[in-house]
Amino acid sequence: MGAQEDSSGRRKEFQKRTDEDIDSFLARKDFSKTSASSSSGTASSAPPAKSSEPAPKPTPPPEPRETTEEEHENQIRAARTSRAEHEAYHDVALLRKKAHSYGHKAAKHYHKYKANEARAQKCSAKAVAYREKAASRREKARDFLERAKTYEEELSSAAHGTTELSPEALRTRVASMERKAAKEEELARKNESKAATQTEKAAKFKTKAAKYLEQNKLNESESRRYSKRADNLEKAGP
C-alpha cells in the first residue's frame, strides 16, 4: 500500500510540472506575437527617413559654337577634294569598263579570224587534193591515148598483113582506149572544177579572216588607248 501511494504522488507531481511548463510556453508564444505585431505597426506608421544628400542637377546641353570663317573654308575645301576624288574614281572606272569592252570585242573578232583562217586552210587543202586527182586522171588519159596510137599503128600494119590481129579487133581496141582516155579526161576536169570551187571558198574565207583581223586590231588599239588614259588618270590623282 505504501508503494502505490508513492507512485501516485509522483505522477501527480510530474503532471503538475508538465502543465506549468505548457502554460509558461503558451504565455511566451503570445507575448512574442504581440511584440512582433506592435513592432511591425510602429515600423509601418513611422515616416520614411529623408536622405540628407541633394539630388544631382541635370547638366545643361552645350551651346552650339559658331564655326569661324577659316573652318568653313576648310570644310568647303575638304568637300571639294572628296568630290574630286570620287569623280576621278568614277572616270577611271568608266575608262576601265570601255577598255574591257573593246578588249572583249577584239578577242571575239580574233576568234572569228582564226576560225575563217582554219576554214580557208581546209579548203586550200581540198583544192590541192582535187588537183592531184585531176593530174592523176590526165596521166591515165595520156596512157590510154598512147595505147590507142599503138593499136592504130598495128591497124596500119594489119592492112599489109604483118599482124595477127584483125583490123576490126584493132579498131575496137582503139575505140576502147579513146573512150577510157575521154573518161579519165572528164574525171580530171571534174576534179579541177572541184579544186576551183574549194579555191574560191578559201579566198572567201581569207577575205573574211582579213576583215576580222582588221576589226581585232582596231578594237585592241581602242582598248589600249582607254587603258592608258585610265592609268594616266590614276597616276595624276585628284
- Beta-sheet strand percentage? under 5%
- The average pLDDT is 77
Largest sheet, in brief, is: none
Q: Structural class of the secondary elements?
A: mainly alpha
Tally of separate helices: 3
Distance between the termini: 132 Å
Helices and strands, in order, run as HHH
> What is the general shape?
elongated
Low-confidence stretches: 31-51
- The tally of strands reads 0
Helix fraction, binned, reads: over 70%
Radius of gyration: 64 Å
How does this model look, in words?
The protein contains three helices and no strands. It has 238 residues and is mostly helical. Helix 2 runs antiparallel to helix 3 (167-236). The longest helix is centred in the middle third of the chain and has 91 residues, at 69-159. The radius of gyration is 64 Å and the shape is elongated. The relative contact order is 0.10.
